[in-house]
Amino acid sequence: MKPIYESPLSSRYASEYMLELFSPDTRYRTWRRLWVALARAEHKLGLPVTAEQVAELEAHVNDGIDYDAVAAKEKELRHDVMAHIHVYGESCPNAAGIIHLGATSCYVTDNADLMIYRDALIHIRSELAAVIKALSNFAMEYRSMPTLGYTHFQPAQLVTVGKRACLYIQDFLLDMDEIDFVISNLKFHGCRGTTGTDASFLSLFDGDEEKVKELSRLIAEECGFDAMFGVAGQTYPRKYDSRILNCLSSIAQSAYRFANDLRLLQHLRQVEEPFEKNQVGSSAMAYKRNPMRSERICSLSRYIMADALNAPMTASTQWFERTLDDSANRRISLPEGFLACDAVLRLMRNVTEGLHVNEKIVEKAVLEYLPFIATENLLMSAVKKGGDRQRLHEVIRRNSMAATARMKEGESCDLLDRLAADPEFPLSFEEITAVMNPSDFIGRAPHQVEEFISQIDFTGADDEKVEINV
Fold this sequence. Notes:
This protein has 20 helices and six strands.
């Protein structure tokens, strides 16, 4: 262990892929890729940049970066981009003089961020797809299993275990809609100059506006973007960060809802998250099976939702063409938002692929409350035998309250016995119990699950990389 603070997102939660994506190496090599793309476009458009210089820059993109040299240079210059330009130039002496020609710092910082965010969003999408797939398998497996529904966390009408899972899937599909929108509408910043007017490049190209526009287009194409912001200041619009973090927050909201419900279900002993053979639930209470994965999902999701507030506060306070009070905040809030969301989805995948249903407990809860649930059907049957609907409603209400009071004393539910013995209720015990099949009280739930899941377009046979088209 290092004797310095290390973010738990790095040491405990996020994936190796996401940690590498937001690492200094990826960030600064992406800067170098952008300097190569700039030099290549400038060469192609006739500026005094040679093919040899472009090749030299390209040859050293993936060199090990001398961070000590960068730190020493930044201490001297008080400017991180210039420090990297100087160190990169030392590796490319013949091209050192044309690195960053005409550009401002935000050419590399902003475009690199957009490239990294794009790759991170694609990764998040793949993890989200895997969670949806796992939940869909679970929903189909338990589509017909009756379970007690809850409204206000009070016993309500029956649903099925699979039908309830579809509620969570639907939330995640809405998140999939949102992330697909964000990915499909990603734009490149391009080369805009210090205030977004292209003035420096217009000067370099002797007033040829078409070449100035072509410069940004060529760079965007090389970096995998087919669209750019119509206008910009020195930076790309910081509202874009709001869109990205809102997307991550949306996923966190869905994950929190699922995990919080699972924590309640685990308390009821109905459905449980995975629990390893030698897992310890409590250091003091050896019998405990705490839902620690679900609790961690909720904890990290709450962080993401709070983190998403950074972007609108930053976007709303940008002055004119640019201000630098966004920089330090964005260096933390965007990467950590992605790392935390990655961690949440990894946990979600682990939980949803290993959910355990305690079927006997679920059935016991159903049977305990089934007499109350069946009262509406019993009322209709009693009316068909000639009873008065309003008088019968009162009979059922009176006996239900008495049965409930008995249950609160720790006794079993005796509602059916009470109704059968009540002279004002026209159904016999045999007639009453004949309608006590739980499957008769789940409505269309099994078919709803089948219809809903069938509408999800799963493509790709490899479960490690599920694709979903919404």
